[in-house]
Amino acid sequence: MGRLKIDLHDIYSNGAAIETALAEAMQQAMAKRLDLVEIVPGKGSGQLKKHVLRFLARPEIKQLYHRLEKDDKNFGRVFVHFRH
After folding, report:
1. pTM of the model
2. Cα–Cα distances in Å, from 2 out to 17, 50, 82?
3. Three-state secondary structure string covering the chain
4. pLDDT band at 55 (very low <50, low <70, confident <90, very high)
């Protein structure tokens, strides 16, 4: 049971870097057969979280993971669950 955490606070204003970081996290989760990827877009205005959710909703990305969970206790966290 593996877990990967990706924090997007440092690259919040660079759309290309966000896309790259998310894509690399998904590839790494698949390659290492991880069960969970925790994405931390932070609370802020919510724009970064919306960007993350739009990325995860893409058909080619959505087929990679099992389910998506928004943390109900912390608005600034998203969990991506995998079933291999």
Report:
1. 0.89
2. 24, 26, 10
3. CCEEEEECHHHCCCHHHHHHHHHHHHHHHHHCCCCEEEEECCCCCCHHHHHHHHHHHCHHHHCCCCEEEECCCCCCCEEEECCC
4. very high
User: For residue 54, what pLDDT is reported?
Assistant: 96
pLDDT number for residue 23:
96
Which domain range does residue 34 map to?
A: 3-81
Task: Give the CATH number of the domain where residue 66 resides.
Answer: 3.30.1370.110
Residue 34: pLDDT band by 50, 70, 90 thresholds? very high
Domain total in the chain: 1
What pLDDT is stored for residue 4 in this prediction?
96
> How far is 44 from 41, CA to CA, in rounded Å?
8
